[in-house]
Amino acid sequence: MKVQIFIPCFIDQLYPETAFNMVKVLEKAGCTVVYNTEQTCCGQPAFNAGFREDAREVCIKFLGDFSGTDYIVSPSASCAGFVKNYYPILFLDSAHNKEVKQIAKRIYEFSDFLVNVLKVDQFPSELYGRATYHDSCAALRECKIKMEPRKLLSNVRGLDLVEMNDVETCCGFGGTFAVKFESISLAMADQKVHHALETGAEFMISTDMSCLMHLDGYIRHKDLPIKTMHLADVLAHGW
Predict the structure, then answer these.
(1) Residue 218: its pLDDT value, please?
(2) Contact indicator for 6, 84 with CB cutoff of 8 Å
(3) From residue 54, how far is each of 43, 87, 103 by CA, in Å?
(4) 12-16, 53-57, 91-95, 175-179: which range is least confident on average?
(5) Side by side, which strands form the sheet with 227-230?
(6) pTM reported for the whole predicted model
(7) What DSSP designation does 201 have?
(8) Taking the CB of residue 6, how many other CB atoms lie within 10 A of it?
(9) Which of 31, 116, 168, 183 has the fewest CB atoms within 10 Å around its CB?
(10) Using CA atoms, how far apart are residues 151 and 174, in angstroms rounded to an integer?
(11) Which domain range does residue 42 map to?
């Protein structure tokens, strides 16, 4: 199966190894992976900040970059959810409306694609230790993803997966929310990290690197004994 990959801005700039690991896993699952080097942003940052016209220009470029009929896979439920749920709002009664409806059907978050499209939930992954999983708001509420990442993680050799309290509560990132409401954002990160620590977990795993970036910053600042990992990095570990 041929798939196009969409790599979010922050993963491209800060966590490229996560993108490479997603490619590694997709190829192991039998996919032919295509990366359009002209791709940029999905438009979500501008949209969330209230700049809808600017966002629309970026979104039109995205539509052009990912034209065709191939599946589109992203290591970010936030970006995939934005394309699925907010492009139809931005382009309502627009000449791009039909194109938007088609692309919304083609774009998938990584774990959703593996489990629900490819029907693959096991890889030769190894990661020894205890882990807990963080449900990102975008994955849970916009992409309706709950069991998919857990199913994949349950098949990782050596990994003891435990649930934390209030697992569906926001981590406090929310993009510009973390900048505009810093004290609230930090308090939410503190709560999330301490719920994870209460499980005895060595790793906190999620589908969204944006959440993990926020939580990792808090963890490093407080020098706490837990590490954040993206699902793709876990699945590519050990082989």
Answers:
(1) 92
(2) no
(3) 8, 13, 20
(4) 175-179
(5) 157-162, 126-133, 203-206, 227-230
(6) 0.94
(7) -
(8) 24
(9) 183
(10) 26
(11) 2-117
